[in-house]
């Protein structure tokens, strides 16, 4: 797949922004905890930090939906649908 110059530029800019965010996080972490952390440990902490916000947002959204009366689907229904989909996909394979 070939990217157009505009898409390529946008991708490079997005990566540059991520690297700047990682650098700021790593610098702050080193100031707080010292220089003994490996790059893998710093990356793991950064990754968890980046994804924790998304998980918190999903929990907040679910709570708001619950408060407004949305009770979701009954577990029995979800499990039955899952089993049906699983049986269908295993019969195709």
Describe this structure in words.
The protein is mainly α and 93 residues long. It folds into 2 domains: 1-36; 38-93, no CATH class. 82% of the residues lie in helices and 0% in strands. The chain contains 3 helices and no strands. It has helices spanning 5-33, 39-67, 75-92. The chain starts with a helix and ends with a helix. The mean pLDDT is 87.
Based on Cα principal axes, name the global outline. Answer: extended
Roughly how many Å apart are the termini? 29 Å
Radius of gyration: 21 Å
Biggest β-sheet, characterized?
none
pLDDT < 50 stretches: none
For the residues shown, what is the average pLDDT? 87
How many distinct folded domains?
2
Strand content: under 5%
Helix content: over 70%
| Overall SS class | mainly alpha
The secondary-structure element order is HHH
Count of runs of 4 or more consecutive helical residues: 3
Instruction: Indicate the multimeric state.
Output: single chain
Quick one: how many beta strands? 0
Q: What is this entry, summarized?
A:
This protein has 93 residues and is mainly α. The chain has helices at residues 5-33, 39-67, 75-92.
Q: Which helices and strands occur, and which strands form pairs?
A:
Elements lengths: L4 H29 L5 H29 L7 H18 L1
